[in-house]
Design brief:
Blueprint (H helix, E strand, L loop, with lengths): L3 H32 L1 H21 L4 E8 L2 H7 L2 H10 L8 H10 L1 E5 L5 E8 L2 H19 L3 H33 L5 H33 L6 E3 L12 H28 L4 H13 L4
Length: 292
């Protein structure tokens, strides 16, 4: 007896039942959404408007930004007590609190980032008032300039090294000038001229190295200054925090998702048939929650 036609007929019946179940499931979802449409629209909008109103009540924060050419060590210096404590005292931030608390609060208002490629240091200071944010940024820069300059013993050592580098540069330049005169002399032979040319190249390299050292010592002696400032601290015109629109949109979407979850869970509970198995599961849930 050939069972292939019967098996094929059963597969067709199962396929039609599966398609029907999928269609019914989609219709159930649409019915659930339609029955709770007002709830899913009105409640999230109301909560979003409330969040937007709260955004106008929350404390505002203004950010002043300054940019300068500096090394990572300068970024670390800006957040030390040597810089923060004088700034807090000068701006009256220590009134009614301890120096440690004022320093901690001031450090929380500061963000310092050094770019990996451009080596630019970006200082961002936040405060509840725009003018205060700019004043703190200016005070931080001035105190950083002062603290970056070498102290007496270090300055004396750097000045000695600078003088030595300047002496090496002068000697190399004088020797190079003397070699140029000898190379230009008609008495210099071809072999001697080649030797003089090599010596001249070495003197040029020595002069370049000495000039680099001089520039480095001069920067260390001068420390960080306004000459390295790319952008002075800005006066913010708008508050950076709170982001009212983003807050309202985020709360609205979160409320919508929560309501969808509640609506579909409630509908699933309603559609669950009352059987001995489901009754037993509900009893176990009540016992686990201590409701019985």
């Amino acid at each position: 007896m050939d069972l292939k036609p019967a098996r094929k007929k059963m597969e067709e019946i199962q396929g039609s039942l599966t398609a029907e179940e999928g269609e019914i499931g989609l219709l159930d979802i649409l019915v659930t959404l339609a029955e709770n449409l007002k709830l899913l629209i009105i409640v999230p909008l109301f909560v979003g408007l409330c969040a937007l109103g709260i955004g106008f009540v929350l404390p505002q924060a203004f950010e002043s930004v300054a940019v300068l050419q500096a090394e990572p060590i300068t970024a670390s210096l800006m957040t030390t007590a040597a810089v923060l404590d004088p700034v807090a005292a000068a701006l009256g931030l220590t009134k009614g609190t301890t120096v440690e608390d004022a320093r901690r609060k001031l450090r929380d208002q500061i963000k310092v980032v050094v770019g990996r490629t451009d080596k630019l240091l970006t200082l961002t200071v936040s405060a509840s008032v725009a003018q205060q944010a700019q004043a703190i940024a200016n005070a931080l820069l001035l105190q950083t300039y002062q603290e970056s300059r070498p102290k007496a013993s270090a300055r004396k050592r750097l000045e000695g090294q600078l003088a030595e580098a300047q002496g090496r540069l002068k000697n190399a330049q004088n020797a190079a000038a003397s070699l140029v005169k000898r190379m230009e002399s008609p008495a210099s032979s071809v072999a001697g001229g080649a030797e003089l040319a090599r010596g001249y190249a070495e003197l040029l390299n020595a002069s370049s190295a000495a000039q680099t050292q001089i520039s480095s010592f001069e920067v260390l002696l001068e420390g960080v200054s306004d000459a390295l400032l790319v952008q002075a601290p800005t006066l913010p015109q708008k508050a950076s925090q709170p982001k009212k629109a983003l807050l309202a949109i985020g709360v609205t979407l979160a409320t919508e998702l929560l309501l969808l979850l509640i609506v579909f869970m409630r509908q699933a509970f309603r559609d669950t048939p009352e059987t001995a198995e489901t009754t037993g599961k509900w009893a176990r849930i009540r016992r686990a929650l201590g409701l019985t």
